[in-house]
Amino acid sequence: MPRHVAVIMDGNVRWARQRGLPSSAGHEAGVRSLRELVELCCRWGVKVLTVFAFSYDNWVEVEFLMKLFEKSIKSELEGFISEGIRISMIGDSSRLPKTLQELVSDAEDRTKNNSNFQLIVAVSYSGKYDVVQACKSIAQKVKDDVVRRDDIDKSLIEQELETSCTDYPYPGILIRTSRELRVSNFLLWQLAYTEFFFVQTLWPDFGKAEFVDALTSFQQRKRRYGRRDS
Amino acid sequence: MEKAVGSMLSQIFENLVCLIRKFIFCVLSVAPLPNHIAFIMDGNRRYAKKRGLMEGVGHKVGFLALISMLRCCHELGVRYVTVYAFSIDNFKRSPKEVQSLMELMQEKIDDLIKEESIVNRFGLRIYFIGNLKLLSEPVRLAAEKAMLATAKNSKAVLCICVAYTSTNEIVNAVKESIEEKWDEFCVLNASGAGYGLIKLGGSEGDEREQLIKLIDIEKHLYMAVAPEPDIIIRTSGEIRLSNFLLWQSAVCYLYSPSVLWPEVGFHHFLWAILNFQRNHSYLYKKWKQQ
């Protein structure tokens, strides 16, 4: 079982259009899918789930998604606290409305000691932005004489990436729905050895059966990390 | 007499195949074409095992497959080709295998820069991308010689990733961009200017923002010699990047046919381009809807 599963939740709008519904209905159905996936992950021993809500490149549906995000945190927070689920957000939170920033900060604070399961929501996030902000932190530390230039290595960068909020920053599997065969600026550094699973299903239709397919595929793959087959 | 007829027929057949290929590429050119294709050449060892051959033979046949793909790219007019030849992770393999791969690489690099080779016929400029200091001396020298020998070629670019991983490339770029800014900072500090922002009423946060930007890192990447790839093709059915072009593949189309690298051919290439074009037109529609 992979310890960390990453998901690009794509297809909400297409799902809604196929049913003659407004795109908001697609996003709401998407939230239901996410809730189901969180439950399955908790039950099956996955420790971390990182989900890609949207990045810089998709501010068209922003207003509605912000409200939905706010509504979801408010309704799910007590449940997370009681079930030992930790919630974290990665991405450029400065672009979110102030009320949402405070809500997220509060949710992160209140769940930071939970250790059963961690849900990481990537909002206004891009893999390149993550590396650049890590680089900025390191540059500042070099300037402040906290770190020497010679000490800059792989593990220093890992510590400064936003995914350092978890003990398992490297997803074993990345699932992308709606058959888009690309990463779309989601995680970057962290996907070095991740197995990709692209599935035709649209996100609101992604459920237990599809998740089982993805996990089965993951378990059958031979991960060599550059070495030879045994 | 029969031999001459046979050879004539063979020539006619070859010309016909060539003509059909040209026609197919002509038709493909009606739709958007990729400017940069990257290949993860996976499956050489599995190919050798499948055919009961010695392991080294798989890599040799793999080299022929590379030439075949370079020919396809040249005929289609693809300006940039990148291949993942040897990862830093591959150094973990048995010393015997690493040694034989290094020897093969040196042999093939020397072949590539011969006057009559396709590299010169296609006008390919070669770059060796990676931490070349990790290579053995003869291979590193051969690589440097090849880069020098092809520096004047200007029709297309071939980036050969050796002793490469994307994370190593990024660490190096981060280090170099901080080094560059450090020198700038020292000069400014010495002249009493600093970044000047705090004196002007800027905050410490603003100063941090000025330290390093995306563009600073990008210009120090080994792959700064080429634009980002449009397609990454990984053969042998594995669907992962294995620390290849993580930075550059942010919005790139990933194609994973199950064919093993030594068996890759014209029709796989054609299929990859068609899929790219279909995906490209879908993305364009989606962008227009937004």
Automatic annotation (TrEMBL), chain A:
**What superkingdom heads the lineage?**
Eukaryota
Stated name of the protein:
Dehydrodolichyl diphosphate synthase 2
Q: What is the lineage of its organism?
A: Eukaryota, Viridiplantae, Streptophyta, Embryophyta, Tracheophyta
TrEMBL record, chain B:
Q: Which key words are in the record?
A: Transferase
Q: InterPro entries per the record? A: UPP_synth-like, UPP_synth-like_CS, UPP_synth-like_sf
Report the EC code(s) recorded for this entry.
2.5.1.-
Which biological pathway? Protein modification; protein glycosylation
SUPFAM superfamilies recorded: Undecaprenyl diphosphate synthase
Q: Gene3D superfamilies in the record, alphabetically?
A: Decaprenyl diphosphate synthase-like
**What GO MF terms are annotated?**
ditrans,polycis-polyprenyl diphosphate synthase [(2E,6E)-farnesyl diphosphate specific] activity
A biological process from GO? polyprenol biosynthetic process
Do the record's keywords include Transferase? Answer: yes
Respond yes or no to whether keyword Endoplasmic reticulum is given for this record.
Answer: no
GO CC annotation, single:
endoplasmic reticulum
Under NCBIfam families, the record lists:
uppS
Q: What does this protein do?
A: Catalyzes cis-prenyl chain elongation to produce the polyprenyl backbone of dolichol, a glycosyl carrier-lipid required for the biosynthesis of several classes of glycoprotein.
UniProt lists the family membership as follows: Belongs to the UPP synthase family.
Protein name per UniProt: Alkyl transferase
